[in-house]
Amino acid sequence: MGRCESAKAAIAARFSIKDLIEAIYAAKDETKEELIDILNSVYIEDENNFYYDYFLEIIDEEENFDELVRRMKETGGDSYVKKLPIGEVSGDSSLYAQSALYQIANLVGCDRWGYNRYGENCNSTALDLDFISSEKERSIKFFAKFGIQVEVVIMATVSAC
């Protein structure tokens, strides 16, 4: 069977998982679902995918939001290496304390297919600074209405297909 690798660069809003969860608790019913949808769509800023793997596992398994939050506070740090028991993770290394990236707009992507893929390949797109600026302003205003401070960044993702 062949392999596929996919890479993309996008404009993203970076914010604290903690801030998003606090906004979900504070939200009225009509906006709570919108924020939960955002939580279900974020990437965890994690170059080695350990936090993100745990995040996806918790999101997929937990239907009770309070239990989801408890598990996020108790998962992370060195638990993926040392297999620490739940509850032994300290504050800033928990999944709850990590940064989330919410994709706003895709900028460029590149896919590789084949049985044995070696080397490098690339793709390009025109740089539209007006578009990037307008997306940045729109995103800051959108998250501000929920009391979430964001930084608009360029996000890169690589994944196996």
Question: What can you see in these coordinates?
Answer:
With about 160 residues, the chain is of the alpha+beta class. The chain has one domain. About 40% of the residues lie in helices and about 25% in strands. It contains six helices and four strands. The protein has a four-stranded antiparallel β-sheet with strand order 2-3-1-4. The radius of gyration is 18 Å and the shape is globular. Residues about 80-85 have low confidence and may be disordered.
Number of helical stretches of at least 4 residues: 6
**Unreliable sequence segments:** 79-85
**Beta-strand content estimate:** 25-35%
Strand order of the largest sheet: 2-3-1-4
Q: Mean pLDDT, rounded to whole units?
A: 84
Number of domains: 1
- What is the first-to-last residue Cα distance? 12 Å
Q: Level of helix content?
A: 25-40%
- Cα gyration radius (Å): 18 Å
**Largest sheet composition:** 4 strands, antiparallel
At a glance:
The chain has 161 residues and is an alpha+beta fold.
Strand-helix topology:
Blueprint: E1 3-16, H1 17-26, H2 29-41, E2 43-44, H3 50-61, H4 65-73, H5 79-82, E3 99-114, H6 129-144, E4 151-160
Antiparallel strand pairs: 1-3, 1-4, 2-3
